[in-house]
């Protein structure tokens, strides 16, 4: 699944490749990706010029002239490809934008869970899915106090709480496992039962993890590749995710894989014990 660092890498790649391009045609091969009528989607975007690609958590925001924004949620498997020929797109490419320089922007999504929606630019932050998002790592809104206050109000386990995007946005399965290992927190620990020491360790762990991952261009767990076809390098530094059976680099105990919040979860049974 693309996580915040991957989406940020895609955003930067798209800005280099297609900023200032005008959309001259749109082909929608699978209408389920589009929120609302496909004809409205096309009418709103054809002829528009792309000003820049922004991001909120794991949503890409394509800002166009005429104060229109296309919100794109990649969900499980979505990715963008910029190509010079329609023949370069396979059967999993469901939406194709023709650009005025002869290139094509294709949206590829094997599982078809992604969504695209056009809204007035000033309504983006009020859109239901985006309004519900908590503060993002590495921003002024994400403070130790905000994190502590958010977790205090939640009784479900810390893994589910960090995944649900309300207390902090942008962390997916891989990075939640990694930050819980760094802060020595058991994934099944109730969110409102963290010790002071764990809370103090969790905040910088989240910021560090996201900063490091963005710098490395995201992970290549599964099939993530950025808009230019480059693979991320972050998988080299994963401490617990996908490390089942390997020794913990902190204590030597074998990393275990269990199910928490319905997701495969990796942790060290010796470094990450439940609090009393
Ligand atoms: Zn350990």
TrEMBL record:
InterPro entries: DNA_glyclase_Znf_dom_DNA_BS (IPR015887), FPG_cat (IPR012319), FPG_Glyclase (IPR020629), FPG_N (IPR035937), H2TH_FPG (IPR015886), Ribosomal_uS13-like_H2TH (IPR010979), Znf_DNA_glyclase/AP_lyase (IPR000214), Znf_FPG/IleRS (IPR010663). PROSITE patterns: FPG_CAT (PS51068), ZF_FPG_1 (PS01242), ZF_FPG_2 (PS51066). Involved in base excision repair of DNA damaged by oxidation or by mutagenic agents. Acts as DNA glycosylase that recognizes and removes damaged bases. Has a preference for oxidized purines, such as 7,8-dihydro-8-oxoguanine (8-oxoG). Has AP (apurinic/apyrimidinic) lyase activity and introduces nicks in the DNA strand. Cleaves the DNA backbone by beta-delta elimination to generate a single-strand break at the site of the removed base with both 3'- and 5'-phosphates. Its cofactor is Zn(2+). DNA binds at residues 92, 111, 154. The active site is at residues 2-3, 58, 263. Residues 239-273 form the FPG-type domain. Binds 1 zinc ion per subunit. Keywords: DNA damage, DNA repair, DNA-binding, Glycosidase, Hydrolase, Lyase, Metal-binding, Multifunctional enzyme, Zinc, Zinc-finger. The keyword rRNA-binding does not apply. GO terms for biological process: base-excision repair. Its EC number is 3.2.2.23, 4.2.99.18. NCBIfam families: fpg, PRK01103.1. The keyword Electron transport does not apply. Belongs to the FPG family. One of its GO terms (molecular function) is damaged DNA binding. Residues 2-114 form the Formamidopyrimidine-DNA glycosylase catalytic domain. This is Formamidopyrimidine-DNA glycosylase. It catalyses: Hydrolysis of DNA containing ring-opened 7-methylguanine residues, releasing 2,6-diamino-4-hydroxy-5-(N-methyl)formamidopyrimidine; 2'-deoxyribonucleotide-(2'-deoxyribose 5'-phosphate)-2'-deoxyribonucleotide-DNA = a 3'-end 2'-deoxyribonucleotide-(2,3-dehydro-2,3-deoxyribose 5'-phosphate)-DNA + a 5'-end 5'-phospho-2'-deoxyribonucleoside-DNA + H(+). CDD domains: EcFpg-like_N (cd08966). It holds the Pfam family Fapy_DNA_glyco. Monomer.
């Amino acid at each position: 699944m693309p996580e915040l660092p991957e989406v940020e890498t895609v955003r930067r790649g798209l800005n280099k490749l297609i900023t200032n391009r005008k959309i001259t045609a749109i082909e929608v091969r699978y209408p389920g990706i589009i929120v609302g009528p496909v004809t409205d989607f096309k009418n709103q975007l054809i002829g528009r010029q792309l000003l820049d690609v922004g991001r909120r958590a794991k949503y890409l925001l394509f800002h166009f002239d005429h104060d229109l924004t296309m919100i794109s949620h990649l969900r499980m498997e979505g990715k963008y490809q910029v190509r010079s020929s329609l023949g370069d797109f396979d059967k999993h490419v469901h939406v194709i934008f023709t650009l005025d320089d002869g290139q094509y922007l294709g949206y590829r999504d094997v599982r078809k869970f992604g969504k695209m929606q056009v809204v007035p630019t000033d309504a983006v932050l009020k859109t239901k899915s985006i309004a519900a998002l908590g503060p993002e790592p590495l921003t002024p809104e994400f403070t130790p106090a905000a994190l502590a206050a958010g977790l205090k109000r939640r009784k479900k386990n810390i893994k589910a709480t960090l995944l649900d995007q309300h207390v902090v946005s942008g962390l997916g399965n891989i990075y939640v496992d990694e930050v819980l290992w760094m802060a020595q927190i058991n994934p099944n620990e109730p969110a409102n039962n963290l010790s002071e020491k764990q809370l103090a360790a969790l905040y910088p762990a989240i910021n560090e993890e996201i900063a490091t991952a963005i710098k490395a261009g995201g992970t290549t767990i599964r099939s993530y590749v950025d808009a230019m076809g480059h693979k991320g390098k972050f998988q080299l530094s994963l401490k617990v995710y996908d490390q089942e059976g390997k020794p913990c680099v902190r204590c030597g105990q074998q990393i275990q894989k269990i199910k928490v919040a319905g997701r495969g979860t990796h942790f060290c049974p010796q470094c990450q014990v439940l609090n009393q």
